[in-house]
Amino acid sequence: MASGTAEPQEFLPALRFRRLTPYFDHVVRLTMREATFKRRLLDGLALQPGERVLDVGAGTATLAIELKRRTPGATVVGLDADPDVLALGRAKAAQAGCEVELVEGLSNALPFPDASFDAVVSTLFFHHLDGEAKRTTLRQVRRVLRPGGRLHVGDFTRPADPLQAALNFPVRVFDGFAVTADNVSGGLPHLFAAAGLEDVRERDRLRTAMGTLALWSARRR
Ligand SMILES: C[S@@+](CC[C@H](N)C(=O)[O-])C[C@H]1O[C@@H](n2cnc3c(N)ncnc32)[C@H](O)[C@@H]1O
């Protein structure tokens, strides 16, 4: 999916090369203020018991496990294209004693019925998709949300200053300039609106050692 992707595949793995996947949690924890931005995203989401939530591009299930820990009465489903990262996620969930359903699949063909989730969340994921896949994925997200359902996303945005742009540059080289373009231009929230989502809002912004992250929310009317 990224221009110049090193391995033939339909998705860009967590750290681009599958052999690096076991190091993903360490890298994100050390460089991305992971605990802080995921806590803030979940504070904004305010998931309720009885609700069903989907984590798209769930990776090693860190966010999905935290969702279940915070709201044991909710149903938590995580989707990812990579069976290796899902195996790590399943092991982590079992160790944490958390019941989360982890499904292998592509975000641009979500294997769920229409209006089947109260909320969709996603972190550090959209910058792994090219422009067309971002658009298709967002239409799929809208489809699986019930009317009134909410989307909460955390991902790279336009760098806050030249230092943040310099820190983000290695991410762009590593993951690919094409897939990260909409993020660094600040275009992601416009894509939410273009997919038919409403009340698009930037709720927070954080500087990290890998560039500037934003937290956005939107809603299906
Ligand atoms: C950088 S990781 C983020 C993982 C997790 N959301 C987090 O915050 O720790 C991006 C994930 O997206 C997954 N991915 C990439 N393209 C995908 C697609 N088209 N459909 C589903 N998952 C995809 C990768 O396998 C990877 O696990």
Alpha-beta content class = alpha/beta
Number of separate structural domains: 1
Strand order of the largest sheet: 3-2-1-4-5-7-6
The CATH architecture category equals: 3-Layer(aba) Sandwich
Q: Which geometry do the CA atoms define?
A: globular
Rg: 16 Å
Mean pLDDT: 95
Structural account:
The protein is an alpha/beta fold. The protein has a single domain, classed as 3-Layer(aba) Sandwich (Rossmann fold), CATH 3.40.50.150. The chain is built from eight helices and seven strands. It has helices spanning 24-31, 34-45, 62-70, 83-96, 131-144, 162-175, 177-184, 188-194, and strands at residues 52-56, 75-80, 101-104, 117-123, 145-156, 198-208, 211-219. A seven-stranded mixed β-sheet has the order 3-2-1-4-5-7-6, sandwiched between helices. Helix 6 packs antiparallel against helix 7 (177-184). The longest helix is centred in the middle third of the chain and has 14 residues, at 83-96. Mean pLDDT is 95; it is low at 1-8. Residues 11-14, 28, 57-59, 62-63, 80-82, 85, 106-108, 123-125, 128-129, 133 line the site of S-adenosylmethionine.
Describe what is shown at a glance:
By secondary structure, the protein is of the alpha/beta class. It has helices spanning 24-31, 34-45, 62-70, 83-96, 131-144, 162-175, 177-184, 188-194, and strands spanning 52-56, 75-80, 101-104, 117-123, 145-156, 198-208, 211-219. The protein is globular.
